[in-house]
Amino acid sequence: MFIAMKVSVRKIKIFKIMNRKGYGALCLNHLTEGKTVYQVYERMLKALKRNGIKVNGKLDNIKRLIKETI
Fold it and tell me: What is the reported pTM?
């Protein structure tokens, strides 16, 4: 039996990668990279879905998820 886990949108942390073009996202030990903030967010949703994790809530402003430059 497969148990689905639920997580809030606010658990996703998006950051600008310093010496590269693009952004990265981190959530529950999942790491994704992409050229734009939107691409990174979509890739993170796909990675979480692949592991049976559902993301609850709507994303009003994606800029809120950006934390810092790493």
Answer: 0.82
